[in-house]
């Protein structure tokens, strides 16, 4: 006999900004579909959201939407920088978090009918299976990244890894189906640059990626139009895949249909947004500003920041630069660098600690995005139709930037040559000689936005996901 209440879904991201962003949006989409939701966040990140955002009042509109917290296992005053992520994995994730999740699921009322777990928290699959709860994995990284991670053992087996030094970086990799024509050694996930394929991070990434395919289904933040060939490959390993992205655009469409405010008025970020940059952008001509941001985790040496700064100053564009707290590494610290930059760049640019990124990308003054190629940032730029200049750092960023330049042809990839001359040239290429990239970026934006409109592929896939969860929970 069926339950006479709406399905109760638990959404559980890993404690990182990019993951929280897309998973909280998915939770809201499911709340709009009438489900009861529990969003499980690390206690530290929950408190940061409370401090910096209006999320508590925002979600109060959904009856049955609850926030619960879980410890990430590290002390609250731990700086969570440097190698903290591996530290968290090695020391606590598989033990403490797993145990806490299990206890919570045993005690929660009404019981959870379906878990949507972060693809990097594979232990939640074990817990769900043990307790007989259906589980769907949400992989928040790009499908290109997911498929490259999945394929690492095959690349090693074929003798195409490890990479044999810097002269080997442009060799094509032939053992990742779907990417044979454009994936070079330098475009592989950053971990593949390790000289030793026994590196713990490689093992972890492969383990977590392969484990995701043991869930009942997989959710990916993309569209069939963007990633069709890669999605077909992923489906050979996990037959039920829902491509429902870009999730920010999907949420905006669904909110508009309900006559609610678009999502960019609700902030879900872990730092306080500096809205003053919007007033600064309001005073700039159309498409005259390059927005420069490296996401929530990447840090940069003082030396690299100076190269970036000279490249920007020497280019012909104005810029809006995000320098997050703790962004600059090294002994000299961040503050003196930032003060120096602010002082010298008053007439050419504007610097903030954290920007309202979606609003910035959709501002008419912004004509380009110099990005670290994190997947959320890439999708947000695609939706807004803004061409990219890619300066990738780690994980899926190397392969994302390759897709931007070679598959979608909506920007330039400066990977591995990020000096002031290259920055200057690429900024001018994208911002001054705008025609080529703005045309292709506008076209891709239109295709992508159509996919989340009524009848579009991502729109239909979300409806299918909602229906399948209902059936799972009967
Ligand atoms: N972001 C933001 N303001 C900033 C910089 C980043 O709101 O000043 C948001 C951005 O919109 C994106 C997320 O932070 O949704 C970063 O995620 P991404 O996957 O691009 O990179 P990660 O932080 O995971 O490396």
Automatic annotation (TrEMBL):
The protein's enzyme class: transferase
Pfam families given in the database record: UDPGT (PF00201)
Keywords from the UniProt entry: Glycosyltransferase, Transferase
Gene Ontology molecular-function annotations: 7-deoxyloganetic acid glucosyltransferase activity; quercetin 3-O-glucosyltransferase activity; quercetin 7-O-glucosyltransferase activity
Transmembrane segments: none
Reaction(s) the record says it catalyses: 7-deoxyloganetate + UDP-alpha-D-glucose = 7-deoxyloganate + UDP + H(+)
Coiled-coil boundaries: none
EC number: 2.4.1.-
Recorded family membership: Belongs to the UDP-glycosyltransferase family.
Protein name: Glycosyltransferase
Organism, as annotated: Hibiscus syriacus
């Amino acid at each position: 006999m069926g339950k006479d209440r709406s399905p109760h879904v638990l959404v559980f991201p890993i404690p990182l900004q990019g993951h929280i962003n897309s998973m909280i949006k998915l939770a809201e989409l499911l709340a709009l579909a009438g489900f009861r939701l529990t969003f499980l966040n690390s206690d530290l990140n929950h408190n940061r959201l409370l401090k910096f955002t209006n999320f508590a009042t925002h979600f109060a509109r959904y009856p049955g939407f609850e926030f619960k917290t879980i410890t990430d296992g590290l002390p609250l005053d731990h700086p969570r920088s440097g190698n903290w992520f591996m530290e968290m994995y090695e020391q606590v994730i598989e033990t403490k978090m797993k145990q806490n999740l299990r206890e919570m699921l045993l005690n929660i009322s009404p019981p959870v009918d379906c878990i949507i777990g972060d693809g990097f928290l594979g232990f939640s699959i074990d817990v769900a299976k043990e307790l007989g709860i259906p589980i769907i994995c949400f992989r928040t990284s790009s499908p290109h990244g997911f498929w490259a991670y999945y394929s690492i053992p095959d690349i090693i087996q074929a003798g195409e890894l490890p990479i044999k030094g810097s002269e080997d970086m442009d060799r094509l990799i032939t053992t990742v189906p779907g990417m044979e024509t454009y994936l070079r050694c330098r475009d592989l996930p950053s971990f593949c640059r390790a000289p030793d394929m026994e590196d713990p991070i490689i093992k972890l990434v492969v383990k977590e990626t392969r484990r995701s395919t043991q869930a009942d289904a997989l959710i990916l933040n993309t569209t069939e139009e963007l990633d069709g060939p890669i999605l077909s490959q992923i489906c050979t390993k996990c037959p039920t895949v829902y491509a429902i992205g870009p999730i920010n655009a999907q949420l905006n469409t669904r909110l508009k249909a309900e006559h609610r405010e678009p999502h960019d008025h609700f902030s879900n970020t872990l730092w306080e947004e500096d809205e003053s940059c919007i007033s600064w952008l309001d005073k700039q001509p159309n498409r005259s500003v390059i927005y420069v941001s490296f996401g929530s985790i990447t840090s940069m040496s003082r030396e690299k920041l100076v190269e970036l700064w000279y490249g920007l100053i020497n280019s012909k564009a104005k810029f809006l630069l995000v320098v997050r707290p703790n962004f600059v590494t090294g002994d000299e610290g961040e503050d003196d660098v930032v003060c120096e930059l602010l002082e010298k760049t008053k007439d050419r640019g504007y610097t903030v600690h954290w920007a309202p990124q979606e609003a910035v990308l959709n501002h008419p003054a912004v004509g380009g995005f110099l990005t670290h190629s994190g997947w959320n940032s890439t999708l947000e730029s695609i939706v807004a139709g803004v061409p990219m200049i890619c300066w990738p750092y780690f994980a899926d960023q190397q392969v994302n930037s390759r897709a931007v330049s070679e598959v979608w042809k909506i920007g330039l990839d400066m990977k591995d040559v990020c000096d002031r001359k290259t920055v200057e040239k690429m900024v001018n290429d994208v911002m001054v000689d705008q025609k080529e990239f703005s045309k292709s970026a506008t076209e891709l934006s239109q295709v992508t936005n159509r996919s989340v409109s009524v009848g579009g592929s991502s729109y239909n896939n979300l409806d299918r996901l909602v229906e399948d969860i209902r059936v799972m929970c009967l």
